[in-house]
Structures are given as C-alpha cells and as structure tokens.
Amino acid sequence: MRDTLTLRFLYRTVPGRALLKILVQPKVSRAAGCILSARVSKRLVPYYIRKHKIDMNGIDIPAGGFSSFNDFFTRKRIMESFDLTPGHLISPCDGFLTPVEIGREAVFSLKNTCYSLGELLKDDNMAKRFEGGLALIFRLTPANYHRYCYAAEGYVIRSRKIPGKLHCVRPVALGAVPVFVQNSREYQAVVTDRFRTMVQMEVGALLVGRIRNHRLSADAQYVQAGAEKGYFEFGGSTIVLLLQKDTVFLREALYQRMDENGEMPVRMGECVAQAKDQ
After folding, report:
1. Which of 49, 76, 103 is the last residue before a domain boundary?
2. Residue 223 is inside which H or E element, if any?
3. Can you give the residue range of the structural domain that contains 94?
4. Is 237 a catalytic residue?
5. Based on the domain organization, do 66 and 124 belong to the same domain?
6. What is the pLDDT of residues 8-53, one digit of tens each?
7. Most exposed: 54, 57, 184, 272, by fewest CB within 10 Å?
8. Do 163 and 268 reside in the same domain of the chain?
9. pTM, full prediction
10. Between the ranges 53-57, 89-93, 112-116, where is the mean pLDDT highest?
11. Which position among 41, 68, 184, 237 bears the catalytic label?
C-alpha cells in the first residue's frame, strides 16, 4: 500500500513529477547500483526477503552468503523446468503476463497509453512486420526471480540497445507516461521455425533495473529455448515479446489466473502459447 501511494505521488502530483525527473535519470540509477553492489548492502537482504515473502527454497546460495544486495537480487535457482515441446512458446521469466493485440499501423494500447512499435523498436520497417500480431508483456516485480531465458529457439538476426530513462513499470505509471518508449531497453529479433520472426525485448525500470544480457559470439547466433539470455539488476522490469499475425494462440488455462489488472502470473519455462500450425 505504501509503495502504491509513493508511486501515485510521483506520477500524479506536480511536486512528485518534479522529483521524478531527477529519479529517472540514468546517472541516478548508476549511483544506486554502486550502493547496492557494495558489501555493506548485504545487510538489506534479510529484510527484503521478509518484506516480499521470497521463497529461498531451491536457490543457489554461495558458501559465504551473498556478497551484496545485487548479488542476492541476481540469484540463481539450482534447478529449472522448461517446456521444450515443439511449437510451444515459453515464458521467458517469472512475472505477470498481459497479452495485447497489435493493431493497424503497428500500434497497441496498454493501461490507456498507446504505443507505436516504430518508436519502441526505433525501426519502422521492423515494426510493420508485427501489424495485427500479438505483444506479450511480462512485468517482473521486485520480489520475482530476475534471470530470464529465450522464449523460443532460432537465429538472432538483429540486436539493438536503446538508451533512455528508467520509469517505474507498475500499472500506476503505465497509465501516466509512455513508459516503454522512454525507458532504456534492448532487443533481439529472432527468426524461428514455428513463430516466424519474433522480437524479445528487455525494458529497464525505476532506480536501477539494469539490463545484463549475455553477449553472443560472432559465430554463435543460434539460440535455444530456455537458454539464459541475461538478468536484471535491482528494480522491477519488463520483458516484451512481439509475435507476428496468425503465428500463436494463448493457452486458455492462463485466463483462469487473470487478476483485476488483467495480468496473469507465469513462471519461467512454462508454455504460454502454441504455434497455430500445430
């Protein structure tokens, strides 16, 4: 409740917006990142686990404990489970999924805010490929596991980093500013066998939300579903999958999980959609 009131102050009041202009600057995030990577920050870990009710079962805890808060935040699980059935698209992360149809002119609407894929991708030609398709938006909360994987296997044909600010990605912020086209983000376009061309994008968020993608070597542009793509440092963040028209349909069982915000809780590696040609 306190977090929600703070965000409403920042995004819906005049003094809050004045403060927000400072907080969303990358240099503020870099400073926060340095603090949370210092050894003294590990004292925050027990409090954070209690506050967010984080289940530490199955987590790979170093012999001497976590060296810093960010070391804890980017923790690894000992075991993962992935649905690698051919024609299944898996969730790239733990979080909350919102499916959104992409309309004409490659535009979609989320929380009363319209987004142009041309602005999102900084590539109008790439954006046109997804007219009439589907955007799967995965919101990670601070309590979620912040490592993520590839949602499908295929060949990476383009990688791009887009600098920007770092707004919050909570629903209260999404309805106030066009967060996704303002925030720092990275994406890859992947040519797949069953889903044609797919875009997988990571979006940073307020205060840190730093994107740490693993670098692909020049001779290894083929990626596998379930392979770790990277991780976010501290901050709630977002992953966006863009899928072309008539390539997938969502699992019906997901709609039974939908909450009042239209979001569906998902876990990394579970099937969220199937190829339409199955």
Report:
1. 76
2. strand 222-223
3. 83-275
4. yes
5. no
6. 444 445 454 444 444 445 555 555 657 788 899 999 999 999 999 9
7. 57
8. yes
9. 0.83
10. 89-93
11. 237
pLDDT in tens, 175-184: 444 455 567 7
Q: Residue ranges of the alpha helices (H) in 37-175?
A: 45-52, 69-73, 117-121, 124-128, 171-174
First to last CA, the chain: 44
Same domain, residue pair 142 and 257: yes
**Shared domain check, 51 and 159:** no
- 142 and 34 fall within a common domain: no
Taking the C-alpha atoms of residue 7 and residue 263, their distance in angstroms, rounded to an integer, is 19
The answer to whether residue 71 is catalytic is no
Half-sphere exposure of 28 toward its Cβ, with a 13 Å CA cutoff?
15
CA pair distance 69, 73, nearest whole angstrom: 6
Q: Are the C-beta atoms of residues 100 and 134 closer than 8 Å to each other? A: yes
pLDDT tens digits, residue range 78-88? 989 999 999 99
| Residue 277 pLDDT | 75
Q: Are 250 and 99 in contact, with CB atoms under 8 Å apart?
A: yes
| Residues 44 and 71 placed together within one structural domain of the fold | yes
Q: What is the pLDDT of residue 261?
A: 82
Q: Convert the pLDDT of each residue in 186-210 to its tens digit.
A: 999 999 999 999 999 998 765 555 7
Q: How many domains are contained in the chain? A: 2
Catalytic residue among 94, 109, 219, 259: 94
